[in-house]
Amino acid sequence: MTTGQIARLPWPVFSSYEWQQDGACAQADPSLFFHPDGERGPARRMREVGALAVCGVCSVLDTCRTHALSVREPYGVWGGTTESERETIHVRASRADRKMGDTRTGSSQIL
Ligand code: SF4
């Protein structure tokens, strides 16, 4: 994790992460949400579909997605989004910012 990524994280206090205890994934196998090195193609998509199904019944999905987008979580399925979906959201937000002449990176405007 880079210094910039660390700076986006919430303060490391329990209340900042308490919502994660209510996540539908709290008792799930983490390997469903985080891919092994080099995983590609159908295997990756199948794993992501399984993780997204868990997110689909999660009571803290909105909070989780907001967190993932605001801190730019680079890895795993968070808040019903995959790594590539979040990257697409950030790229589109950055392009929109540039069109508007805004030099900020877009993360804060996504939410
Ligand atoms: S939205 Fe998905 S990743 Fe986030 S807490 Fe719920 S189940 Fe876990």
Mean pLDDT rating: 88
Query: What is the total tally of β strands?
Result: 0
Alpha-beta classification:
mainly alpha
Rg of Cα set: 15 Å
Number of helices: 6
What number of domains? 1
Walk me through what this model shows:
It is built from six helices and no strands. With 111 residues, it is mostly helical. The protein has one domain. The radius of gyration is 15 Å and the shape is globular. The chain starts with a helix and ends with a helix. Iron/sulfur cluster binds next to helix 3 and helix 4.
In short:
This protein has 111 residues and is mainly α. Helix content is 50%, strand content 0%.
Q: SSE layout and pairings?
A:
Elements: H1 3-8, H2 14-17, H3 41-55, H4 61-70, H5 83-99, H6 107-110
The structure holds iron/sulfur cluster.
Identify the notable features of this structure and list them briefly.
111 residues; mainly alpha; globular; binds iron/sulfur cluster
